[in-house]
TrEMBL record:
<keyword id="KW-0489">Methyltransferase</keyword>
<dbReference type="InterPro" id="IPR050078">
    <property type="entry name" value="Ribosomal_L11_MeTrfase_PrmA"/>
</dbReference>
<dbReference type="InterPro" id="IPR029063">
    <property type="entry name" value="SAM-dependent_MTases_sf"/>
</dbReference>
<dbReference type="GO" id="GO:0008168">
    <property type="term" value="F:methyltransferase activity"/>
</dbReference>
<dbReference type="GO" id="GO:0032259">
    <property type="term" value="P:methylation"/>
</dbReference>
<keyword id="KW-0808">Transferase</keyword>
<keyword id="KW-0689">Ribosomal protein</keyword>
<protein>
    <submittedName>
        <fullName>50S ribosomal protein L11 methyltransferase</fullName>
    </submittedName>
</protein>
<dbReference type="GO" id="GO:0005840">
    <property type="term" value="C:ribosome"/>
</dbReference>
<dbReference type="Pfam" id="PF06325">
    <property type="entry name" value="PrmA"/>
</dbReference>
<keyword id="KW-0687">Ribonucleoprotein</keyword>
Length: 211
């Protein structure tokens, strides 16, 4: 699929809006996960077209606690829409790299950065060796422990990062494969309007530090 086709799809399936918990950040958002997922005709949901609970909580936490990222180089891992990376820049991060395996997510992240007047370096799947060598101070990862294979690969990648002194923060609404013995909870946020995505109107979501 060409870059132009990807741009056209992101444009046709979304419209500018905001996530309920993070009104400071504008995003290209779809309004119906089932219809959008059907139109993408892919196995995985269109994570890039929605503001998921873990990402919203993590973005809110970063905006409310800018000391976590101010002046630092940040990786928005499995970036989806790029919400967390944009929030980090709004909070004063020196630079943000956004990594995702999904080409549409990379397009959406770049578009959302432009929508907010910030610049994000968008790369491929760093966990698969795509993109530059990792050179960051902080990793932010929202909603990454939702299935076992992904969670295992994610934890291996994050373990390597913490091993060289990189701070890692994750946003998670209680996914089954969250490594609960490895995380320190920092704050919990009630993310509203999550019926379509989570099956409940309000989803309590916790920001953790990986130990």
């Amino acid at each position: 699929m060409t870059q132009g086709e990807l741009d056209d799809q992101v444009t046709s399936w979304t419209a500018p809006g905001t996530a309920p918990l993070v009104p400071e950040v504008r995003l290209l958002l779809a309004d119906d996960i089932h219809r959008t997922w059907s139109e993408t005709d892919e196995e995985a949901p269109p994570f890039w077209a929605f503001a998921w609970a873990g990402g919203q909580a993590l973005a809110r936490h970063v905006l409310d606690h800018p000391g976590l990222v101010v002046g630092k180089r940040v990786l928005d891992l499995a970036s989806g829409s790029g919400l967390v990376g944009v929030a980090a820049l709004r909070a004063g991060a020196a630079a943000v790299v956004a990594s995702d395996h999904d080409a549409r997510a990379r397009v959406a992240t770049a578009r959302n950065a432009t929508l907010n007047g910030v610049s994000v370096e968008v790369v491929g799947d760093l966990m698969a060796g795509e993109g530059p060598e990792l050179d960051v101070d902080v990793i932010l990862a929202g909603d990454v422990f939702y299935e076992q294979p992904m969670a295992r690969l994610m934890l291996e990648f994050l373990d390597e990062a913490t091993g060289v002194g990189i701070e890692v923060y994750v946003g998670d609404p209680g996914r089954e494969y969250l490594p609960r013995r490895r995380v320190e909870p920092l704050a919990t946020y009630d993310v509203p309007d999550t019926t379509d995505l989570e099956g409940r109107a309000v989803t309590p979501t916790t920001v953790h530090r990986l130990r």
